[in-house]
User: Which sequence fits this backbone?
């Protein structure tokens, strides 16, 4: 995400490399490039100008420490102002009522229905909420079927009424149903249009008045840039929504919506969609996003994702198996599946400081795990548990069964054995002993 913007900002800051001090001339040159980068990212012109004016004022008013270069200082100030521009800090969703009612709004094609499913899954798994999804899009063909499929996928009940084309009535009945069933969260998916029109605005306004939602979220496609901001303003003028959700942030996003929307409508971005899976919804942290835009990575989010997937009890049991050299292909497959649940591999690599630039031009194939999984699934239970029995005949059978070559099977087994030795070495402390016994230079 934001790869083009990150590259252009990086080039802008290089203008200050080798400079001994901050001056009005070199700051002006740098910020001219920063402004161009923001405008290319489809950031609102007034927002871009105000942003660079603020950075310039702070840069010229701040002393450069001997240990900090002018370039480093400019990056720090820009990071602080990017964070402020996107809202400063994360803003939580309002879930104080029982049931808490969340109204979803947005244009058709913004990913609103899918996002409703992702939000239901997020609240169910991470906030321990009992959720009811409500199908109030009675116009788009298959919209009700789509939300029912999503509900089945995440194990959340979907409320719909066959033959009723009155979304206001459906929403009211759904809230009453949730109360009767003791469900504490209701997510109402409403109809969208291809453009803002009076009929759509009037309808969603009536739904809002009828159910008095605790939270109104505006869902917007992050890839639409400045158009997204204009649409957000139109919706906010009528609905006075509480927050924004940016979808498709894993795509070729220029960044204009994320950087402009808070400043234009004065409403926080609360969530971001980062992939197609139901788990691909993250709380929006302005500071972490600013770090990623500037190529600093996002280790905190990476660790949080890992903690969500890795169970401490399982990890302790796994460590014992590694120490006894009992780590097998079943364990390896389990770890692989947990990594996949963390999200897009290229996105995860971009969270590591410095890695974003290294992998930006590399096509990380999300299907690369499939051949590994196919090979392991083609093994018998004994072969998975005791890799040492994998002789030539067995390997040939596994290659045939998995649709891979004997070379692919041999390569995976060798990599697995090398990894197993390395893991055992670090678990038993052999690596530390080797380091202590290494001769030191005098």
Assistant:
């Amino acid at each position: 995400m934001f790869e083009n913007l990150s590259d252009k900002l990086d080039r802008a800051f290089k203008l200050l490399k080798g400079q001994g001090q901050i001056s009005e001339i070199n700051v002006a040159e740098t910020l001219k490039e920063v402004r161009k980068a923001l405008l290319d990212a489809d950031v609102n012109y007034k927002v871009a100008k105000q942003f660079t004016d603020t950075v310039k004022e702070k840069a010229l008013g701040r002393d450069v420490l001997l240990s900090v270069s002018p370039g480093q200082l400019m990056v720090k100030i820009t990071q602080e102002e990017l964070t402020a521009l996107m809202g400063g800090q994360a803003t939580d969703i309002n879930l104080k009522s029982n049931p808490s009612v969340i109204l979803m709004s947005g244009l058709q094609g913004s990913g609103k229905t899918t996002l409703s499913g992702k939000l239901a899954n997020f609240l169910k798994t991470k906030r321990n909420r009992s959720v009811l999804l409500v199908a109030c899009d009675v116009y788009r063909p298959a919209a009700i079927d789509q939300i029912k499929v999503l509900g089945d996928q995440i194990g959340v009940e979907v409320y719909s009424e066959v033959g009723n084309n009155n979304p206001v009535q459906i929403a009211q009945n759904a809230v009453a149903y949730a109360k009767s069933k003791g469900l504490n969260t209701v997510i109402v998916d409403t109809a969208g249009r291809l453009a803002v029109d009076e009929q759509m605005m009037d309808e969603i306004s009536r739904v809002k008045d009828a159910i008095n939602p605790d939270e109104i979220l505006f869902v917007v496609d992050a890839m639409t840039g400045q158009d997204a901001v204009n649409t957000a303003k139109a919706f906010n003028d009528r609905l006075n929504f509480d927050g924004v959700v940016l979808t498709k942030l894993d795509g070729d996003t220029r960044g204009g919506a994320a950087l402009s929307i808070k400043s234009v409508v004065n409403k926080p971005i609360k969530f971001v969609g980062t992939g197609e899976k139901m788990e691909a919804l993250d709380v929006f942290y302005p500071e972490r996003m600013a770090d990623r835009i500037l190529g600093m990575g996002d280790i905190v989010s990476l660790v949080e994702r890992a903690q969500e997937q890795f169970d401490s009890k399982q990890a302790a049991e796994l460590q014992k198996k590694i120490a006894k050299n009992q780590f097998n292909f079943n364990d390896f497959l389990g770890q692989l599946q947990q990594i996949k649940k963390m999200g897009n591999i290229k996105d995860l690599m971009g969270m590591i400081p410095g890695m974003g630039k290294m992998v930006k031009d590399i096509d990380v194939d999300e299907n690369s795990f499939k051949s590994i999984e196919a090979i392991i699934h083609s093994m018998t239970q004994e072969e998975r548990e005791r890799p040492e029995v994998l002789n030539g005949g067995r390997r040939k059978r596994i290659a045939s069964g998995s649709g891979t070559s004997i070379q692919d099977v041999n390569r995976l087994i060798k990599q697995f054995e090398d990894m197993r030795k390395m893991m055992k070495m670090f678990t038993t402390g052999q690596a530390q002993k080797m380091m202590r016994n290494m001769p030191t230079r005098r």
Remarks:
- The beta strands are 100-105, 131-136, 157-159, 185-190, 215-221, 243-247, 269-273, 281-283.
